[in-house]
Amino acid sequence: MKFNPDYSNKESLLSLYQKPLLELVFEAATIHRKYHNPREVQMSSLLSIKTGGCPEDCGYCPQAARYHTDVDAEGIMKVEDVLEQAKNAKSNGSSRLCMGAAWREVKDNRDFDKVVEMVQGVNDMGMEVCCTLGMMSENQAKRLKNAGLFAYNHNLDSSKEFYSDVISTREYEQRLDTIDNARKAGISVCSGGIIGMGETEEDRIGLLMSYMEMENPPESIPINALVAVEGTPLEDQKPIEQWELIRMVATTRIAFPNSIVRLSAGRTKMSMEAQALCFMAGAGSIFAGDKLLTTPNPEFNEDKEMFSILGLVAKESFADGEQPTTNPDPILIEKKRIAAEREAAYLKAKQNKSNKSFTPRTVTKVDTLDG
Ligand code: SAM
Ligand code: DTB
Ligand code: SF4
């Protein structure tokens, strides 16, 4: 079931969201058990492969260059360092790696070539690979898919109406276009939002309505609580009540029975009991590891203990979809061919130069011993 026909308009979804809390959790738990194994929770690790210096003005984001936060702009990570971190995340139980870049959009340049290599390497390790790189074209999506990308994360963040209160450097429509491009390339879509930015309950429902209006809603819907970071325009936002996050998780669960609901940013502020209610209400995934992209997250060991207390088990990779194949990338192959050609030409030139500097002694009759 792509979406729940009992709650396919704004009014019914809003009254669902406002139901007595335990009734809402019970209804969500019932749906969750029908469509998913309630003991399985996916652990996904985040890695910021290109941090800070972003030209966008997203009011919540510590990575926007225009805000004065503690985040410094850094260049893209080395491919081998990313693979090392992926190995580490895998050994800690993560079945998915989500690589994030503080970009407005993907550009067809050397940095993107590196991302393609990272996707190939992580997919070959048997982990689900997700990327969140900003806007991308259909061709760029196809290139990532060809490299073995499993999912693309691109959040709508809130309702169409509230969006422009938080972001002015791009349009809601552009976000929808990128999601469409990922879909057309056959990539699984991960898209969700943030609560606690000053939006109304209607805006939260508006976000879900945007997904209802899609031909295919996202396979994965992350629900983030705002991490209010000093220096951003939303630094003084009052933290949301844990109940609100539980309501949002439960409502999303009921509205999209097949999707995976991700309990995302904001867990450091939640008690284990509140997280337990989220799992009860259908959260099927968390971000694991002590860092989200730039802000803190619970430690692996803390989550391991929570899983053991609550009787949860980490979900295996590719339980919800076949592992994509890593195909050779024509651009990388051509780049390597040119590099090999240059290297050969350089070695040849070096060889010629040293041959020239060696002037053999002219042997004359006088030099010979036997006269
Ligand atoms: N630049 C790309 C983009 O915007 O799509 C990818 C990285 S961006 C950091 C990924 C997502 O992180 C955003 O869409 C937003 O939903 C979430 N995010 C960023 N800052 C956040 C914060 N302070 N609290 C909660 N979620 C946040
Ligand atoms: C998502 O919805 N939440 C994650 C992931 N997708 C990329 C990001 C949360 C970022 C929180 C702020 C930070 O750590 O910079
Ligand atoms: Fe840039 Fe993404 Fe942060 Fe917006 S959310 S400022 S696009 S990194």
What does this entry look like structurally?
The protein has helices spanning 10-17, 21-35, 79-91, 110-124, 138-147, 160-166, 172-184, 201-212, 242-255, 272-280, 300-310, 330-357, and strands at residues 40-50, 96-101, 128-132, 151-153, 188-190, 193-195, 220-225, 260-263, 283-288, 313-314. Strands 1, 2, 3, 4, 5, 6, 7, 8, 9 and 10 form a ten-stranded parallel β-sheet that branches. The protein has 371 residues and is an alpha/beta fold. Strand 8 (260-263), helix 10 (272-280) and strand 9 form a beta-alpha-beta unit. The protein is elongated, with a radius of gyration of 26 Å. The model is unreliable at 366-371 (pLDDT under 50). Helix 2 (21-35) crosses helix 9, helix 5 (138-147) crosses helix 7 (172-184) and helix 9 (242-255) runs parallel beside helix 10. The chain folds into two domains: 7-326, TIM Barrel (Alpha-Beta Barrel); 328-361. The structure holds S-adenosylmethionine, 6-(5-methyl-2-OXO-imidazolidin-4-yl)-hexanoic acid and iron/sulfur cluster. Residues 60-61, 63, 100, 102-103, 132, 134, 154-155, 157, 194, 224, 226-227, 229, 265, 293 line the site of S-adenosylmethionine (SAM).
Reconstruct the topology from this structure.
Elements: H1 10-17, H2 21-35, E1 40-50, H3 79-91, E2 96-101, H4 110-124, E3 128-132, H5 138-147, E4 151-153, H6 160-166, H7 172-184, E5 188-190, E6 193-195, H8 201-212, E7 220-225, H9 242-255, E8 260-263, H10 272-280, E9 283-288, H11 300-310, E10 313-314, H12 330-357
Parallel strand pairs: 1-2, 1-9, 1-10, 2-3, 3-4, 4-5, 6-7, 7-8, 8-9
The structure holds S-adenosylmethionine (SAM), 6-(5-methyl-2-OXO-imidazolidin-4-yl)-hexanoic acid (DTB) and iron/sulfur cluster.
Iron/sulfur cluster is lined by residues 54, 56, 58, 61, 63-64, 102, 104, 134.
